[in-house]
Predict the structure.
Amino acid sequence: MYNFDELIDRTKSSCEKWDKYKGQDVIPAWVADMDFKSPPCVIEALQKRVSEGAFGYTAIDDETYDAIINFVKKHYDWDIKKEWLVFTHGVVPSMNIACQAVGGESVMTNTPIYPHFIKAPHNAQKSVIAIPIIEKDERWCIDFETLENSITSTCKLFMLCNPFNPGGTVLTKEELERLASICIQHDLTLCSDEIHADLILTPHLKHIPIASLSEEIAQKTITLMAPSKTFNIAGLQSSFAIIPNKKLRESFKKTMGNAVGGINLLAITATKAAYVYGDDWLNELRVYLSENLILVQNFVAKNPSLKLLKQDATFLAWIDATALHVKSPYALFLEYGVGLSDGLPFGDAHFVRLNFGTTKATLEKILSRMQKAIDSLC
Ligand SMILES: Cc1ncc(COP(=O)(O)O)c(C=O)c1O
């Protein structure tokens, strides 16, 4: 049994999440990391590695490759090969590399979306074709018709976020097959950000890497994965791209050139330990997060001015606050001491994103402050 109720003081570690509101009575619930300690297996492996005292140039060993290959096989039944893996120090850098490595003048993605899906194409001097997600059966879905009708001859890349951030949708096999078939038909390369894949909270649902569906789509896909969200090690900057197509992989690596390095020795150590020994911790984390999600859902249910669709993954609740009829719900909740993510940079200022990856005690405080903010409008 791991103790996710343990409150750790993150105010003394240059923590972005907590430092943002230093000296103010604001509980942070924004950036996507959690207030939990990483798994003991990760902490112990790092302590052991640090105690060795040798921190020179370090290669990624076969054990680390095997740890990733076995984790992906065990969790997603996908057989990947060592040579397909390209390490980068973050999924965001990989998104930027993908946008530069793939040709074309525009990039298509769904919105609202994690802001780097918009920034990365712009950084590569490409325009963005934004396809709004739609509400269907109480769930955020891809609008396939609009998507297919909006593809232009200069668009060569589709950037997918699965599970959705924000939105928490886990795409079904049918949805992924439909998207894959559109990409194949229109010759679009697919960059699939699956960083939240391990955090599925609805027990009967499974994450399916889109590239695992068929050889044909695998050959068109750059899959981005990482242990960072899953095991709460974002500060260690570890991530990898899985690129089965040799030409695409070479183009990705060439774009990286000498400008973007791989991962550092502590990231290697943590990644290996997490993927080999972290499963029990991860299972318990998912249970804890699901309980937190219920707290959030109950809170929304008793406030008719808020709305939350089916949230199957991630610790980030995408809350529609349109019915509060305030200019900025983010500003309202901040005034009452909760630092949520403003929906605006994701694409909709009527929404806020609540990070519930925290202790129940902290989440209860967050929700009670949010309640006061809502009650103040009556
Ligand atoms: C969908 C998505 N992709 C990428 C990232 C960031 O990844 P990294 O820290 O590895 O750059 C996040 C972080 O919130 C995210 O939600």
Summary: The domain at 16-37+279-375 is CATH 3.90.1150.10 (Aspartate Aminotransferase, domain 1). The mean pLDDT is 97.
